[in-house]
Design brief:
Helix content: 25-40%
CATH topology of the largest domain: Protocatechuate 4,5-dioxygenase, Chain B
Number of domains: 2
Largest sheet: 11 strands, mixed
Order of helices and strands: EEEHHHHEHEHEEEEHHEHEEHHHEE
Oligomer: single chain
Mean pLDDT: 92
CATH architecture of the largest domain: 3-Layer(aba) Sandwich
Number of helices: 12
Distance between the termini: 62 Å
CATH superfamily of the largest domain: LigB-like
């Protein structure tokens, strides 16, 4: 067998699958480029987690043979798993890059953004999907903090963007709360861009197709935001990032479910603000002085004052474990440590988003909070209000040597 060093694409993720007597997982491309989903055993996920581009198939076989005590374990077994991943376009190689070029052309020519996470993060069937969403609403845990805001919808919310299986408690809490309040006309959805952007933000004016029906984009609002960003950020350059990004799509599904066909959205993806929380600037408050951030938050603030617009941060929190570059494996102690730090960040953000960034900067964003940008932008845009925590949750997946945390909050 020739020495090969396959690398799993960074956008590949796995979600637990329901049913069956043995545990298994759905492996999918969270960027939405590769349409295939694979069903994988815990052992197959363990192999996938070792595909770092620096370790050969034979080396992985040797490592796993020693760790499992199976002396009969061979490189051919690893190779079969790698071949399946490659066939699904999950390996970072020329085959995938050729496919992506064609997918880029198809997306640019379409007026509708097709669902990229149906069949992985949520069911493809509209009937099954609606049933699942209703069950999440019914099973939603009670809020951690008491909220008495009448029938008004919040000015802003923080919602998870993890898959629905792992994120059910958080989604249920937020959308159960929203379903009992008045309906906004438009929801500005600030999603995390999981692929690098060349600009701070990118807009998408395509309508979002979901298994529950079409969710229309508020193009007038998009135009006003584009005008506000003129000269400091071109929100159209990175539009391809919207093609398969799930952080807006998952909220479009939920908004269509609870509000119906009348709701409109403004899809915005936010790039990294890591330079403000990784000890590269004297004070995270420098984020406030960034030209693009100033322009966007001022524009969103004007929408928030209108009384018919809600701002939504589609954001998860910490991403830990070897899958995300940590040396430590997932453990009860590790999760408890992360929870304490996450809650400190949320508590600070509830009243002052700059102070929230300072909490992250204090440890150099040690736990890889992927939603810091949309959370900061949403809370900064609405002014001085108090956030209330509906719930904090953790979703460990030891089979993938990772865990993701998330929270649900409302701001009135």
């Amino acid at each position: 067998m020739p020495e090969t060093y396959p690398k799993l694409r960074n956008e590949i993720d796995a979600a637990p699958a329901d049913g069956g007597s043995e545990p298994y997982f759905i492996v999918y491309d969270r960027s939405g480029v590769a349409p295939t989903r694979l069903f994988a055993s815990p052992f197959a996920l363990l192999v996938a987690s070792r595909l770092d581009g620096n370790t050969s198939i034979l080396e992985i076989a040797d490592q796993l043979g020693r760790e499992t005590g199976d002396n009969a374990f061979t490189g051919s077994e690893v190779e079969k798993i790698v071949d399946a991943l490659d066939e699904a376009l999950f390996i970072d190689d020329s085959r995938f890059h050729d496919f992506r070029e064609q997918a880029d052309r198809d997306f640019r020519s379409s007026s509708v953004r097709l669902p990229g996470s149906a069949g992985s993060a949520y069911p493809e069937s509209g009937v099954e999907l609606a049933e699942d969403l209703d069950q999440m609403l019914a099973d939603a845990p009670p809020p951690e903090e008491f909220i008495d805001a009448g029938e008004a919808f919040p000015r802003a919310v923080i919602v998870p963007h993890i898959d629905f299986t792992r994120g059910a408690p958080g989604y249920g809490q937020v959308y159960k709360y929203l379903s009992t309040r008045a309906q906004p006309r438009t929801v500005i959805v600030l999603g995390t861009a999981h692929l690098p952007l060349s600009q701070r933000f990118t807009l998408c004016e395509k309508d979002f197709q979901t298994p529950l029906g079409l969710v229309r984009t508020d193009r007038e609002a998009c135009g006003r935001i584009r005008d506000a960003l003129a000269g400091v950020c071109d929100p159209d350059i990175d539009v391809l990032a919207h093609r398969g990004e799930h952080s807006v799509e998952l909220q479009a599904v939920w908004l269509r479910h609870i509000y119906g066909a009348d709701i409109t959205i403004v899809p915005i993806l936010a790039g990294s603000i890591g330079e403000f929380i990784e000890d590269r600037v004297p004070d995270p408050k420098e984020a406030v002085n960034d030209g693009a951030i100033q322009a966007l938050t001022a524009s969103l603030g004007e929408f928030a004052q209108r009384g018919d617009v809600m701002i939504m941060a589609s954001a998860d929190l910490s991403h830990i474990g070897p899958r995300f570059g940590d040396e430590r494996e997932i453990s009860t102690a590790f999760l408890a440590e992360v929870e304490e730090t996450d809650r400190e960040y949320l508590s600070a953000t509830a009243t002052n988003p700059v102070e929230g960034l300072r909490r992250l900067a204090a440890h150099g964003d040690r736990y890889h909070v992927c939603g810091s940008a949309p959370i900061f932008l949403a809370v900064r845009s609405i002014g001085k209000v108090r956030g209330k925590l509906l719930g904090y949750h953790q979703a460990p997946t030891p089979e993938m040597r990772q865990a993701v945390t998330y929270a649900s909050m409302v701001f009135h």
